[in-house]
Amino acid sequence: MVKYVVQRLILMVGVVLGVVTITFILSRVLPSSPAELMLGGRPTVEQIAAAEAEMGLDQPLPVQYINYVSDLSQGEFGRSLRTGQPVLSEVSDRLGATFELTTLAIVLVVLVGIPLGVLSAVRRNSMLDNVARAIAVGGVAIPSFILAMALQLIFYGALGWLPLQGRVAPIVSLDSPILPITQLYLIDALLTGNWDGFRDALAHIALPLLTLVILLLATVTRITRNMMVEVLKEEYIRTAFAYGVPKSSIYYRHALKATLIPMLTVIGLTYGNLLGGAVIVEFIFDWPGLGAFVVFSIIANDYPASLGATLFLAGIYLSVNLIVDLLYFVVDPRLRTQ
């Protein structure tokens, strides 16, 4: 197992280096000038040349690449051309919002989607199964921006139950500010006993969270159902029924256990993609997360910010996949002897 972990870590380093190389080259072939963005207004040719020299953009591309990788190895991601702040600080400030939203979404999807998929498989072709399959097809087919705006129209426009966008209301930020301990507002509000802040943060996260849960629930429910249907046809499951083993034990201790490895793969990949792929939902709900930050940085050709955020997301995605691979050894002890 230790050898496997070492091999995966070496592979992760190679993948990260590949991501750095590709994103670096793409950032340099864009037609717009980062120096003009940093200067703003209508800079002269001399000012642009001086700014490019200061940023090292006048050097040959291989030299720029070596300098950039050298800075990364020292934990230096550069400064954002739009804000002038360190990229690492900008990413850290926004990562908490994305992590809170996506983690809550994947937890709810697992808690709801897996039992729903099991019940759908057990009661095949029943009303519950038909409804679950309809939800799965609808969740996969509906575009995320349509679903997000529909929920806004219903719960904010028609019913007035939930706020439209943002992470907390301005009045709460002034009267009952949430002390940023972990950057996860719900947890921070609970830790400090800030109940007004907790209720407001919960109300603001409800709609983007519901959007992601509906979109992801379809995939997890459908995959759980399909795998359970196949497992329930196995001989050892039929034997367990014949010996009178309680159905709940057969379904959740034996049949579901046989699906855990592929389910872990699906959940891990979904979560990794979600950390960087919730851009549209974050944009529509004005959620101050990392996805929208990356998009705006790319549009503005803020290459230090876009490179740093992309590298950060790639590292998180690879880490999630490594954790999932290690969980395989926990779920199936037979793998430890291979």
UniProtKB/TrEMBL annotation:
Annotated signal peptide: none
Domain of life the protein comes from: Bacteria
Mention any one GO cellular component term assigned to this protein in its UniProt record.
plasma membrane
SUPFAM superfamilies this protein is in? Answer: MetI-like
Q: Name one GO biological process term.
A: transmembrane transport
Which controlled-vocabulary keywords does the entry list?
Cell membrane, Membrane, Transmembrane, Transmembrane helix, Transport
Topology relative to the membrane, per the entry? Multi-pass membrane protein
Query: InterPro entries, per this entry?
Result: BPD_transp_1_N, MetI-like, MetI-like_sf
Q: Where in the cell is it found?
A: Cell membrane
**UniProt domain ABC transmembrane type-1: residue ranges:** 95-328
Q: Where are the transmembrane segments?
A: 9-30, 101-122, 134-159, 201-220, 260-285, 305-331
Q: Where the protein is mainly located, per its record?
A: membrane
Family named by the database record: Belongs to the binding-protein-dependent transport system permease family.
- Official protein name in the record: ABC transporter permease
| Annotated organism of origin | Pelagibius litoralis
